[in-house]
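Entry:
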Amino acid sequence: MVWMNLLLALQILSALAMIGLVLVQHGKGADMGASFGSGASGSLFGATGSANFLSRATAACATLFFVATLGLAFLSHTPRAALTDGGSVLDRAAPAQTAPSAPATPQIPTAAASAP
């Protein structure tokens, strides 16, 4: 149970970090503006360093996300019913159902019984 909570927290944090990193990255159209002089020359990572750093950080977060997802799937594969009573739901017999009783047929009076 502790591993499941740890993996779930890791998955949520890596997903949020990946969303933030994708939103920070610039698209393909931003390279055209950088080529005319209004670019990343004075940026934090240099002219080409941000694309390399952000793409590697995104790939690392995606790897953590997928590893956490696979770990959660592996840990949740064992059904809880199999742990408690030794079998799955499909192995148990279905409850016996009683056949519905036949509806009562009305008695139709015959002509002989109604004659005076």
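The chain has a mean pLDDT of 75.
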